[in-house]
Structures are given as structure tokens and as C-alpha cells.
Amino acid sequence: MAASSSRVMLGPLVAAIDQGTSSTRFLVFNAKTAELLSHHQVEINQSFPKEGWVEEDPKEILQSVYECMERTCEKLTQLNVDISNIKGKTHTPHTEYTHTNASSYYRLYEYVAVLCWLCAVWLDLRTQSTVERLINKTPGRNKNHLKHKTGLPISTYFSAVKLRWLMDNVDEVAEAVLTHRAMFGTVDSWLIWCLTGGKSGGVHCTDVTNASRTMLFNIHTLDWDPELCKYFDIPMEILPKVRSSSEIYGLMKSGCLSGIPISGCLGDQSAALVGQMCFQEGQTACLLKVVLIYLFNCYLLQPVMSEHGLLTTVAYKLGRDKPACYALEGSVAIAGAVVRWLKDNLGIIQTSTELEKLAASVGTSYGCYFVPAFSGLYAPYWEPSARGIICGLTQFTNKSHLAFAALEAVCFQTREILDAMNQDSGIPLTQLQVDGGMTSNRLLMQLQADILCIPVVKPSMPETTALGAAMAAGAAEGVSVWSLRPEDLSEVTSEKFEPQINPEESEFRYARWKKAVQRAMNWETTEPISNGNGETSIFSSVPLGFYILGSMLMLIGAKYIAGQCPL
């Protein structure tokens, strides 16, 4: 009887799928208290078939979702929690994963970024030639040619160029599009379609936050744009229906939660805004994950175009009849991935948690600066030709200094984004709210406060991204177990890190970082250097041929003059 009573007192529960670049997680929250009751995480494998290519298997992603749900429900049962109290479920994917479903063709390709979402991850750079071709046909080769409609520059980071590459380079996809057997979407639409039945009546939809990252979506009309689709030569009929971020899309058709409504969908950065209750103009949420993403919740009811390299995006639309809210966003490609690189590529640490201890052992980079532009630089530069660089090395530099420089790099990139936001918005930031796995690194949090010269606020419950997604699902009409009214929201407990160095020291270190960034620029040519088959073009050997021929003629001439080679 006591056990039964405790189950009843928990009240309605809401679950969230957090589908990230490196893992899938399933989390269950109490809708009355916002308490995280249980969760499970499964790592996602990534493959790198060619230099600059990053892929993930969409079937593995789907399987990981089911596994996380099953394991979490098992844990709840062990805790004597009745899973029938779960009233709604939501998705919070990374917004730049691209998915194509062409009947039996399940190999998906995603963005240029750090990893593969939908088989070609946002870090994937294979679309660089596609981007160059598109920019070349714009007036003045302007990468911001479409920004007035999309809020985005033409970049490998976004979905439309990935789909265009698929249609140009994968025969199965091109044929499926021509024969009307293809559907396209970001990873959220893939998961919703599969979980609501797939080929047996699955719902093909996405929400405004994910749609706004495709370059096919008009952020003013909040729908797919015919002119944008024509520009990329992508048929509109293969695109998912665009819905709000908080409404019932369909019901789960299989698994331990069969019959539960899927009632929310937000991109991870948008979910962080909701989870950290950034509902007022000027509030900022910062995600410190594999990708470093910042959202600035700016002029809420109208989009504002950045003049300093930021993206304009839809922050959220929390209901079918609710207005859309907009944000300025700065996206940085490499944050948590630096830790993985130091561990897997250099081997200077065995686990991610060692990085903080290693950096803290010296407390300085000793003049070493690390620009982790592994796939170019994103906001505010949007410079694909940049590459990673470590400078300021001396014979005294050791792995501890490099670890410290890696953490500082995250902070300097944050500073660049927030400087741009302050210039665009005219609203100086007074404190930074942070979220994500890297917030467990206390040294990083302190460094962030020191470099920004403002307090950094870390929530005591770090899962605010998943919490935001759960809030959207629980607030959906027909579910209505979570109120989003400000007076009903309980304040999240947090820890504040105050700056501990003087502004002059911060400015000096930041200026040195900016100098290092300039060294990283224009490192890689964006011109194609192969014929598409991985073989060097014959024309690239012409200069070498002239050099060899000229050298031979000079040698023969010298021997002739010396009388050693009669002609």
C-alpha cells in the first residue's frame, strides 16, 4: 500500500528524448516539481569514411532511442514508479542533422560539423564544393544572399546543401526523389516518423526550430519557401509538415510507451532557452557540448538580422496558436570535441574528467593558444578555410599547458559570440546561463567568468535542455500537465562563478587569442583538388612537369658547354 501511495503522489510524468551528436538519452521528469526521476544514455558510433566526412547510422540512432526508453522504464519500475503516469514525450535533437528516407535506402548523410547526424553530420565537409558552386551564382559571391529569408549564411553547416549533395552524388536518392519515394527531414522528423508507425502511417513532420536550420524555411512566413526550394532545386513535396514546438504530433506505435503522445519538439539550443526559462528579452542560454551553441533570446516577436556574423533563428513556438519567438545565435563547431581529440588523437588524457585536473595542475597556458578550427570557423567568422592551430609553444610547454589552452579556447570563443551579440542587440549581457555536459568542469566555469568579466550561472540540475523539451511536451494542448506561465515556474537552483581576474588581464589574453585566430585563417583552399574519384587532377601536375623539363634542359645545356654531351 505504501508503494502504491508513493506512485500516486508523483503525479504526471513527462519524458524527453535528447538525441545528440555523440549519444542518445531518454529522461523522465515529474511535471509538478521538474525533478529528474530517471534517465539512460547510449553512445552513438561515428564513422569517418573519408577525410572531412562524418557519418552516423540512422537505424542505430533509432535503435538507441528504443534502448534508452526500455532501460529508463526498467529503472522507474525498480524505483516503484508507475510508467503509466507518463503523459507526453518530446524530442530535442541537434538541429543540423539531415535525414533522407528513400524506401529501403536508409544510409543518411548530414552536416558539416563535428559528427554525423543522419549519416552526414553537421561537421561533415563533403558539401564544400556544393557551397562554393551556390555562392558563385549569387550576385557578388555573397554568402549572405539568402539571409533575409533564412537568417542563415550559405554554409556546409545547414541541411539544404547536404540534401543537394545527396541528390547530386547518390543515385539511389536522386532516383527516389524523381519517383516520389523520398522524404527529407532533420533527425527529429526521422524519429517522429519512425516512432509513430514509419511506413505504416508514420507522421512526417518537424517543428519550426528544426525547420529554420534547413535553409529552405522562411522565418517570416514560418513555412517552406518556394523560392528557396527552387534555388536549391529541391521539391517541396518531400519536406515534412511544419508544426509548432508544443502540440500532439502523433502517438507512439510500439515499445514500452506505446500509445503515449509525442507532444513536443525543439532543437537542443531552443530547448535550453525554455529549460533555463529565458522568456524575457536579452536573456542568454549557453550550451557547452560537443558543439558549442549560444542562443540570445532577443526581440521576441520579430526576427532581427545580425550584422556581426550571428544567425537569426526561430527560438520556439510554444503552441499551435502561439506567436513564434526569435533569437540571435552564435554557433561554434568545436567545444567538447576538443576533449575527445586530446584523448583519442593525442592520448594526453585517458578520460574526459582528467582534463580539468591536468589543466588545474599548472593554472596557466604559459602563453600557448589553441584555435580548434578542425572544420573551419563558424560564428562570427563563417570561414571554412580556417584550420586548427596551436601557437606560442616553447620548450617549456607541456601537456598540462595544452590542456589549459584547450579549456581557454572554449572561453575565448564564447567571448567572441557574446561580443557580437552585444553589438547586434545593444543589450550588454550581465551574466551568462550555461548548460550541457561541460558545465561539470568547474575550472572551465571559472575561466569562462574570468574571460567574459561577468558572472557565469550554472544550474544545479544540468539537464535543462531536456527539461525544456519536457516542458514543451507537457504544456501541449491535450496534455496540459505543465504550465509555462511565469508565475507557475519554480526557480532553478544554481551556482554562480564570479570573475577572479582583473579586466586588463582578461583583455590581454583575449587579444592574444584573436591574434592566433588570424594565423588560422586562409589555411585550406576551398577549390577542388581532385577529379571526384580521389585522384589528383592531371592539370595539377603541369607546374611540376615544366619544372622537371626545365631542369633537364639546363642539365643537358651545362654538360654540352662542358663538352661532356656532344649534340
* Share of β-strand residues: 15-25%
The CATH topology of the largest domain is Nucleotidyltransferase, domain 5
CATH class of the largest domain: Alpha Beta
Mind telling me the CATH superfamily name of the largest domain? ATPase, nucleotide binding domain
Q: Indicate the overall shape.
A: globular
Gyration radius from CA atoms, angstroms: 25 Å
Number of strands: 21
CATH architecture of the largest domain: 2-Layer Sandwich
SS summary, helix count: 17
Order of strands, main sheet, comes to 15-16-14-13-19-20-21
Low-confidence stretches: 1-8, 97-120, 528-544
Protein structure class: alpha/beta
Helix coverage percent: 25-40%
List the helices and strands and how they pair.
Blueprint: H1 2-9, E1 13-19, E2 23-30, E3 36-43, H2 58-78, E4 86-93, E5 98-102, H3 128-136, H4 147-150, H5 159-169, H6 171-178, E6 182-186, H7 187-195, E7 205-207, H8 208-211, E8 217-218, E9 223-224, H9 226-232, E10 241-243, E11 246-251, E12 261-265, H10 268-275, E13 284-288, E14 292-296, E15 311-316, E16 325-332, H11 336-346, H12 354-360, E17 369-371, E18 389-391, H13 399-425, E19 432-435, H14 442-452, E20 456-459, H15 464-474, E21 494-497, H16 503-520, H17 542-561
Parallel strand pairs: 1-4, 4-12, 7-10, 13-19, 19-20
Antiparallel strand pairs: 1-2, 2-3, 5-6, 8-9, 11-12, 13-14, 14-16, 15-16, 17-18, 20-21
